[in-house]
Amino acid sequence: xxxxxxxxxxxxxxxxxxxxxxxxxxxxxxxxxxxxxxxxxxxxxxxxxxxxxxxxxxxxxxxxxxxxxxxxxxxxxxxxxxxxxxxxxxxxxxxxxxxxxxxxxxxxxxxxxxxxxxxxxxxxxxxxxxxxxxxxxxxxxxxxxxxxxxxxxxxxxxxxxxxxxxxxxxxxxxxxxxxxxxxxxxxxxxxxxxxxxxxxxxxxxxxxxxxxxxxxxxxxxxxxxxxxxxxxxxxxxxxxxxxxxxxxxxxxxxxxxxxxxxxxxxxxxxxxxxxxxxxxxxxxxxxxxxxxxxxxxxxxxxxxxxxxxxxxxxxxxxxxxxxxxxxxxxxxxxxxxxxxxxxxxxxxxxxxxxxxxxxxxxxxxxxxxxxxxxxxxxxxxxxxxxxxxxxxxxxxxxxxxxxxxxxxxxxxxxxxxxxxxxxxxxxxxxxxxxxxxxxxxxxxxxxxxxxxxxxxxxxxxxxxxxxxxxxxxxxxxxxxxxxxxxxxxxxxxxxxxxxxxxxxxxxxxxxxxxxxxxxxxxxxxxxxxxxxxxxxxxxxxxxxxxxxxxxxxxxxxxxxxxxxxxxxxxxxxxxxxxxxxxxxxxxxxxxxxxxxxxxxxxxxxxxxxxxxxxxxxxxxxxxxxxxxxxxxxxxxxxxxxxxxxxxxxxxxxxxxxxxxxxxxxxxxxxxxxxxxxxxxxxxxxxxxx
Length: 689
Description:
Blueprint: H1 2-24, H2 33-55, H3 61-83, H4 91-114, H5 131-152, H6 159-186, H7 191-214, H8 226-255, H9 260-279, H10 282-295, H11 303-314, H12 323-334, E1 340-346, E2 349-356, E3 366-367, H13 371-379, E4 383-384, H14 385-390, H15 402-405, E5 410-418, E6 421-429, H16 439-502, H17 506-531, E7 541-544, H18 545-555, E8 564-567, E9 573-576, H19 578-594, E10 602-609, E11 612-619, H20 626-631, H21 649-659, E12 663-669, E13 673-681
Parallel strand pairs: 8-10
Antiparallel strand pairs: 1-2, 1-6, 2-3, 4-5, 5-6, 7-9, 10-11, 11-13, 12-13
């Protein structure tokens, strides 16, 4: 064990000395380097002395333990110097730092003076309970607290320079805490723990040096926050509590006889459980926050923290609860309220939209004429029911309804205002700890209420928009179906009109049967789309575009001018739903025929270019101007055909082609005709099989 101690402490002393030499080059710079230099060289001497003591044991015990006091005390003084800028603008924090610094120095002096009057424990000794062990343990606890304060209160952009310093010093104090806790509980210094401490220090020196290389001056802008004070106080209180419990446990073991060991274990386990219960107690946490807000800060709230918390809660970052419950929770956390009720505007009335932390029950709907609603709409005050009970004159004209009186826990009524209108209000329950409300609480609640009202209004608008989109989708589907039915009716009407004259013509009968079969097929497809949850979804299969166009052109030969087909390739394959592709191209051809005089021309041209199949439908009709093509042609429900048109054919064509990965282009000149180009991706070879 002596060899391990010699190597560990010797290496630590060498590394501390090297770090001290590097610091000698910057010791004149401001920012705490002078204190740091002294702490580093004291640590080097401490490590060297313990290395010699481990090998020869010739040094005075008083010298060893004097250095054991000086080393942590100097590191504490260095941490106090880092934290000193925080005390400039916070009187309460300055007093706390001064008390801790004075107590640490006084304790160190008492421990040094006592070394000359009595013996001190060395590794392996079994002395009686020694108060100096408690002093060393307090140094370790104070060091952990100060390191935590430095790290927590450093800005994010500066933590890069400080984190290794905090890791290094925090590890050293944590190891000392472990060493002296073990010594206090078992009344001996464990030789193995004592010997390993040198190696632990040697491992931590490079971390401290790395942090100093990133910021040689150690001038870091720290800031104090309420969260830091709260967590630091909790850590300090927990450390003191566990120290007291450890001492009590020791005496239970000493005076408990044969039951002592078992009673000590039971006592320590119960103490840990009690500590956890206190740490997770909402009431204790609330009382602690109120105490520090009153005595340590000019303002009761850290508004940056409060606003971030409010936004995080309302936006769902901290909970998956519905928004109404999150609104109650967010406002309640502002004043430590455990729950509440939320009323929201529903049409011309207000309905209870959420209950949080209260038995579920029915509450009445409230009209604008309700006394509470009218008062908050007019005055826009936060109503304190306790204040109203003591002095009703402060709320002149307010009458509490029976349903509110029956809610025993009701404490505050917070209006939710949006666009100068009462969007709703929240009834908050009595807080976990008594609070005196002033203008600061009330203003924060009103501001938070307006923010919550905007979230609620946005949520309601989103719900209305989603509902409108559902109706829009249904209406659009109906329009497409009606458009297809109109075309089918036109085909069947043509057959019916010509049936009387040509019913004895076998060719007419055969053509009529094919027309009816085609119409039935299309109507069955429409019925399937209406029944399917996918609605107008596209199911693509390989389609020979040349065959489809030949059939389409042949079917349109009965109308004038009859279209013609020119195809460069015999087979051009694309992936699409055949009926819909034929319907949209057929609509384009029909529109070309409708816009062209009987003696004009309508041409359908099929060709390929790179990986695209291109269908051009050209006519010599009346044409369209540029403004109409850009602004009206593809606008749904905008038609130039009067009562006979629905205005969705071109829109359906463009959307269908885009869904297939293609494009639609239109060029037209008034009196010169129109060219309608449809580009579709060619099907891959494996898709044709």
